[in-house]
Write a structure and sequence with these properties.
This protein has 266 residues and is an alpha/beta fold. The protein has helices at 19-30, 43-53, 57-66, 88-95, 129-135, 190-207, 233-250, 252-265; strands at 7-11, 37-41, 74-75, 81-84, 108-114, 119-123, 140-142, 145-147, 150-154, 172-176, 215-217. The protein has a single domain (7-256), classed as Cytosolic phospholipase A2 catalytic domain (3-Layer(aba) Sandwich). A motif (GXGXXG) lies at residues 13-18.
Length: 266
Amino acid sequence: MSLDRKIGIALSGGGVRGISHLGVLKALNQYGIYPNRISGSSAGAIAGALYARGYDPEEILEIILKTNYFKFLRPAISWTGILKMETLEELFKKYLPENSFESLKIPLTVAATDIKRAKVVYFSEGELIRPIMASSCIPGMFDPIAIDKHYYLDGGILNNLPVEPLDGVCDVVIGVNCNHLPVEHNIKNIKGLIERSIIMSMNYNVYSRKDKCDFFIEPKGLAKFGVFDIKKAREIFQSGYEAASTFIIENPELKELTIKKQKQKV
């Protein structure tokens, strides 16, 4: 591998399960692997933005743990959602004060779904915070986010692993999915059935793009955690870290990339 190979990493959505991305990034960094570009949907967009801003993965975990996300939400007087995300803008500004893609230390692309045009839109320049909010706007729960007279919902609806912005730009693409679904022999109620069906749909969306990745990291069993199960944040982080550490050790080509990147820094 040449010394100037560009590494891209695509981070899936998955609610609080996206905290596992931070564990994966920690493991990659410890082995000397640092992405040159990042793309993400939903939780992957949030994790990717904070990491691209320059925060350490463990520092981002602490930010998440100490932030009472729900106190920033307000009821929506609307037929399109039960909560408004608009009040989250001030919270994001605390940690992303420059509020622009250009201010990030690593180029970032986030995916969102244009609900009226029924298409994926990729944001990578200009204002940063509203595209992140759009990318993580869960349908039915949050009012759509308006940007330039278009209305957006969660990027994971149509593209939960946005590798396309990295294709042809990066030499090596690492995909990370935080929604691995274990075999379930006993679905106990309709809630479990609906949740499992949604995750199956999300994962079909992800797996259809798996072949575009040179490496695909998927911590096992994360779908057992709820989308808002913040009390399990440290456990989820550790699952990502352990899965990525094992993956790196078991994949000689990725370990070789590690060596090349380390040599490039010397």
